[in-house]
Amino acid sequence: MKKLYSLFAILTVSAAANAQVGAPYIHDPSTIAECEGKYYTFGTGGGGLISEDGWSWHSGAERPGGGAAPDVLKIDDRYLVIYGATGGGLGGGHNGRILTMWNKTLDPKSPDFKFTDPIEVCASDGMEDQDAIDPGLLLDPTTGRLWACYGTYFGTIRLIELDAKTGERVKGNKELDIAIDCEATDLLYRDGWYYLLGTHGTCCDGVNSTYNIVVGRSKSVTGPYLDNVGRDMFHGGGRMVIAAEERACGAGHFGRFSIDEGVEVMSFHWEADFELSGRSTLAIRPLVWKNGWPVAGDNFKGVLSERRGYALEMAADFVRMQQERQNWFNRSQMQQPAKPIANQALAEVAGTWPEGIIPARIADYMYRPHQRWTITPVNEAGGYLSNPYFKILIEGTERALAATADKEVTVVPGYTGADEQLWRIEQLTDGTYRIMPKAIPGIEGVNTTFCLYSAGDSTPTLAKYDFSSDNSKWNFRKY
Question: What's the pTM value of the predicted model, to 2 decimals?
Answer without folding.
Answer: 0.86
